[in-house]
Amino acid sequence: MASRMALEDSGFIKDVSNINYEKNLENRVRELEIELSMLKEIIAKYREELEYYKSQVEKLMAPPLIEATVIEVLDDERALVKSSSGPTLIVRILETIDKSKLKPGTSVALNQRGSTIVEILPRSEDPYVQAFEVIEKPNISYDDIGGLEQQIQELREAIELPLKNPHIFKILGIEPPKGVLLYGPPGCGKTLLAKAIAHETNATFIRLVASELAQKFIGEGARIVREVFELARKKAPSIILIDEIDAIAARRIDVGTSGEREIHRTLTQLLAEMDGFNPLDNVKIIATTNRLDILDPAILRPGRFDKIIEIPLPNTRGRYEILKIHTRKMPLAEDVDLVKIAQITEGATGADLKAICVEAALKALRENRFIVSMEDFNYAIKKVIKNRYRPYAQILSNNITAVMMYQ
Ligand SMILES: Nc1ncnc2c1ncn2[C@@H]1O[C@H](COP(=O)(O)OP(=O)(O)OP(=O)(O)O)[C@@H](O)[C@H]1O
């Protein structure tokens, strides 16, 4: 007891409790600092959330924008558009818009006054863009087409010559065909030919898939056909490609259902558009079909699709030419014999031959080789045949004899 009193007198005990007290305080300060920084983080998070909700409210309160489709970009500041409400307008382009993305057919949003393009809409939201595709100048040339020399010649006479030298037809007093119908099995180069013709004539290429008009754009077919011809005239010289025309132009026994009536309206509009322009205008129409036999004779009348060209399955020489094109940039091993491949792929379409080349190259790549061998091609032929055809491959020792049949 006496010693404690002595310690107290000396101030030692007081010092010890002071030290503890200060330590406690320091700890508390540290705790509070941690709490403070946590609270700051929480506040920042709430601020962020608040900003987000504010922007959402602003968006909800903003006036609606107007949807439109670009017809033509006039210069850096202005474009011609067709607004979804009907009229064709010349509008300004907001400075922040990436002008390289504005093309005929691009779907855009106009501000509420309909005076300025303020946004480029994603492709999938635009029914027009899905309904037809516009390519200013396709980069396919005649060199990219294997075989089909005679068909190319006929197309050049029917389309390229009147587009490039209309006066020749005037001098001779004859009318070139307005429309050309290409028919034959799928994947043999019909679309490719149409694109090549557009390329060689520097024409705008507008592709309309008729089956989509009939299935996806119900109730809009006739309007879309009208718009396509309007656009083609504005962008002339132009080539309109109507793929799978049988979807809207098949012979019909009766047009009873509303769907049938709608398809008939689309066809009527197409025929009216074709009848309405001069054969020497700068707009040409190419249609394709796999089913010539089911077409309504009305579309084959003079002044409509009065030139019919068959695009058949390629023969051996055609297959060789197509293989040469699709292996043009491929490093081939010495044992690769394209003539042999052409001989054993009877019945293959151009699309099949392309698939065989791609498949062979992929096999080499999978095996870390940068050179494609005959073995890769043999594998690819079997694979493509197996995927697309019924059992037609007979493997005879090291040789493959593939007999392909068009389904
Ligand atoms: N004669 C050919 N020369 C080179 N490649 C070809 C040829 N035919 C087809 N191909 C290849 O096959 C692909 C498909 O051909 P394309 O789209 O022109 O066929 P299509 O006859 O229009 O078929 P579909 O009737 O299905 O539309 C082409 O992109 C091309 O790579």
From TrEMBL:
Pfam families per the UniProt record, alphabetical: AAA (PF00004), AAA_lid_3 (PF17862), Prot_ATP_ID_OB_C (PF16450)
Keyword annotations: ATP-binding, Chaperone, Coiled coil, Cytoplasm, Hydrolase, Nucleotide-binding, Proteasome
Domain of life of the source: Archaea
PROSITE patterns hit by this protein: AAA
Any one Gene Ontology cellular component term annotated for this protein: proteasome-activating nucleotidase complex
SMART domains hit by this protein: AAA
Coiled coil spans: 22-56
Keyword presence, Transmembrane helix: no
Segments forming domain AAA+ ATPase: 176-315
Residues reported in the UniProt entry to bind ATP: G187, C188, G189, K190, T191, L192, H326
BP term (GO), one: proteasomal protein catabolic process
Localization per Swiss-Prot or TrEMBL: Cytoplasm
Broad class of the protein's primary localization: cytoplasm
GO MF, one example: ATP hydrolysis activity
Function: ATPase which is responsible for recognizing, binding, unfolding and translocation of substrate proteins into the archaeal 20S proteasome core particle. Is essential for opening the gate of the 20S proteasome via an interaction with its C-terminus, thereby allowing substrate entry and access to the site of proteolysis. Thus, the C-termini of the proteasomal ATPase function like a 'key in a lock' to induce gate opening and therefore regulate proteolysis.
Assembly with partners or alone: Homohexamer. The hexameric complex has a two-ring architecture resembling a top hat that caps the 20S proteasome core at one or both ends. Upon ATP-binding, the C-terminus of PAN interacts with the alpha-rings of the proteasome core by binding to the intersubunit pockets.
Comment on protein domains: Consists of three main regions, an N-terminal coiled-coil domain that may assist in substrate recognition, an interdomain involved in PAN hexamerization, and a C-terminal ATPase domain of the AAA type.
Family affiliation: Belongs to the AAA ATPase family.
Name of the protein in its database record: Proteasome-activating nucleotidase
The organism of origin for this protein: Ignisphaera aggregans (strain DSM 17230 / JCM 13409 / AQ1.S1)
The encoding gene: pan
